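Morning!

As promised:
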Amino acid sequence: MAERLLEVTDLSTHFFTHAGVVKAVNGVSFTLDRDETLGIVGESGSGKTVTAMSVMRLIPDPPGRVVGGTIVHKGRDLLALSTAEMSDIRGNDIAMIFQDPMTSLNPVFKVGDQIAEVVRRHQGKSKREAWRMAGELLARVGIPDPDKRIDQYPFEFSGGMRQRAMIAMAISCNPDVLIADEPTTALDVTIQAQIMDVIRDMQSQYHSGVIMITHDLGVVAQMADKVMVMYGGRTLEYGPVDEVYYNPHQPYTWGLLGSLPRLDETQKQRLTPIEGQPPNLLLLPDGCPFSGRCPYEMPVCRGEFPALEIVGPGHGVHCWIPIAERERIRAGLPRFRRAAS
Amino acid sequence: MTDTESAASFAEPQVGGPLPVGPEEAAIEVAPLGLWADTWRRLKRNKLALVGLAIITVFMAVGLIEIFFWVTGLHGGYLAPYNPDAVNYAIAKSPPSMQHWFGTDYIGRDVLSRTLVASRISLLVGVIAVSISLAIGLALGPLSGYYGGAIDAIVMRIADVFFAFPYILFVMLLVVVLGPSFRNVFVAIGILSWASYARIVRGTVLSVKTQEYIEAAKAAGASDLRVVFGHVLPNSMAPVYVSVAMGVGGAIVTEAALSFLGIGVQPPQASWGNMIADYLNYLQAGQWWMELFPCLALVITVFGFISFGNGLRDATDPKLKE
């Protein structure tokens, strides 16, 4: 069995604002092994990024705080570490790629300096050695003419190149865990595929575990081994990608998959949107956060969040609808009719 | 790119350039403008700022030369047509002439020589006083803005106290307490002007610290101090440069005011302020040249710093970019 890199159990991160407590992440659990890619999907405000920031311990405090749970990285609980110990881990053992490469590089320093800084910080390399490594890293992530590019400022880079530079920075210390927070959202579709390739290449070279945060189900299908579907700060469904995509058990997952266009659709068919609006995070129901939008809602849904139910190998779901009933409903949905037949 | 056709088609600078197609295709070399080159390009168009820069250059050159002779003691410690302290009653109160361009004062000292030599005091006060206040302001401002909370409240309330006192009275008080000497003038002005730098930097830090690249630096494992002084501060400096240019002019005026009031640089050591005070009485007697030239030197120098500072502000203001 592969080495366990990260084990997050019952993580809860709340923001204490003037208007009230925002439960941005509520009892989320997942694991990440070496060479494995976990996709976290969900719409805006579902808690994907806050989950990642909690793992990095970069939640702005105040107003935010991790109020419960454990984040164990190679046997150490990250939440129990001192600030200095955590700084040693960030960038070295756990690295992050940010959403918007246009704003994630410091505009006043050369790209090479920024990569070299990380190398020097964590590996104690000399300035010269770190600079040489920065050049190698730029070449490795596919930046043409790295010797010239290393000496340039971020504004001289295009968006895709900046994201490559961010990836170079993130992999510079050979991290165990690479968190990519919507790494292609701000990029052109053509560049997206290139960036995804770079991330996958890096993963196979360094054998990292990757957490891919996205709202793009296509990206998850292509990249991930496991997927966690989040909504309103809760995990609604979690499991191997094929399981979740071909055997989804949560009405929200059905909605997500149903709202995707399909290339193999023969007839002109309208996409099926999920009715309603995302919930106000200040006014989340105690029960399932999807209640209120869920077309199959029952009275029990609002009162209490359903316990984890295992429905397949490594495939868990939180839903009050009895399993037989779920399978019956799913078989009737246009989206899944073909898969079932 | 020697043929004119391709030179013409790439006349427009293309930042970043097109994606490289292959190794054999020569990359199009368009040197993009750096921050300073870009600022300079826009500053160049502002004539008043260029005049200011020229004035500053001349002032700094003269001041540095005088400081050099003063420190080394070469040529009696000054570089001027005459010894600025040499008394000659025979030629006292003579108006400007070929021998004495700015005339002589009431005891026959050459006004031109004294005006030149006094520039060293003004340059020193400008550089040293601003360095002191900048050092304090750049240490406290970023910490205040970055950490916020109690640190911010304490630093900014202290700054408010400094702002609340009438500045010139505060400086006078401090100089009187420390004792009037030119070193104490530097220290007093330096200590009392830190608050505006701290406040300016704090304001910029507040906006810079929310930028994503700051979060990225934290995610790369940079320590708090490293983030504040290595990443946030360098991005918060643009308004500080403007403030420094203005601040030097301000410090020179303050020194002149203190010397005018007799609690700054003490005679016979020449400073523009004490010359203006010294020669004031002779203005009514019609001997205008003694008073005019140190006044002109002061006004022109300060004008140079202020107009350069103004130009710099316009040139670094992203909202005014075309």
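The interface with chain B takes residues 56, 58, 83-84, 87-92, 95-96, 98-100, 103-109, 117-118, 121-122, 144-145, 148, 153, 155-158, 161, 166, 169-170 of chain A (CB under 8 Å).

Hope this helps with the figure draft.
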